[in-house]
Automatic annotation (TrEMBL):
Lineage: Bacteria, Pseudomonadati, Pseudomonadota, Gammaproteobacteria, Enterobacterales
Keyword set, alphabetical order: Signal
Name of the protein described by the UniProt record: DUF4136 domain-containing protein
Entry-linked InterPro entries: DUF4136 (IPR025411)
One Pfam family it belongs to: DUF4136
Length: 218
């Protein structure tokens, strides 16, 4: 049964996710061609207010700023000077149980022999496995990051929210540390900021991606 143990360990490794990449889902939408003409931004909370008393938010905002700079956006000195307000929100779900059912090959012992036109053969035939379902359960966490850009001038006038672009970033794995995953999620989403992805896209980010390491050091 040693081979079954080895196969089970391999299966656990595969189902737990590749150790060398982080798989992220990105869904981006933009209002139109003119939605990216505004480049001067300020990062605000999901209530479109400046947040100065939250250290965790400040760390995430610094990383978002760096990613936006890479896309040609420029941070305003204060929200009053901004052309767009970029709402940053994030959350970590409660633990969720994921169940996978996989057909595992089993090589049984030699059974009774039966007659064929080619002679006597054991049943099951030697060298050919039968398959039995194996249930594998794991605990996963959903991490969600959302970046939504709105027209700052319109909002300042009468608090009307006019969306310009919106990026939803989701990670499902066994890591319950959003702070660890945040740079991976931003790197995955960077090419789609201010654009329309048409549908949800899965992006694989290498574990040692230089862009991730740079964001983590900020």
């Amino acid at each position: 049964m040693r081979w079954q143990m080895m196969f089970t360990l391999l299966l656990v490794g595969v189902l737990s996710g590749c150790a060398h990449t982080e798989n992220i889902q990105v869904s981006a939408i933009a209002a139109g061609d003119d939605s990216t003409q505004y480049k001067k931004f300020a990062i605000v909370s999901d209530k479109y207010q400046a947040t100065n008393d939250d250290l965790q938010f400040a760390e995430y905002a610094r990383q978002v700023t760096a990613v936006l700079n890479q896309q040609g956006y420029v941070q305003a000195q204060n929200s009053k000077d901004a052309q767009i307000l970029v709402s940053l929100s994030y959350r970590l779900s409660a633990p969720q149980t994921r169940t996978d059912i996989v057909n595992v090959p089993v090589y049984p012992n030699v059974g009774p022999f039966y007659d064929t036109r080619f002679g006597h053969h054991p049943y099951p035939i030697l060298g050919y496995p039968v398959y039995q379902p194996m249930v594998y359960q794991s605990i996963i966490y959903k991490k969600l990051v959302r970046l939504q850009a709105i027209d700052a001038a319109v909002y300042a006038k009468d608090k009307t929210v006019k969306p310009l672009w919106d990026v939803m970033i989701i990670s499902h794995n066994d890591n319950d540390d959003l702070r660890y995953m945040f740079p991976y999620m931003l790197v995955a989403a960077e090419p789609y900021i201010g654009r329309n992805s048409a549908h949800s896209i899965e992006v694989s980010v290498p574990e040692k991606d230089p862009a991730v390491m740079q964001l983590r050091g900020m």
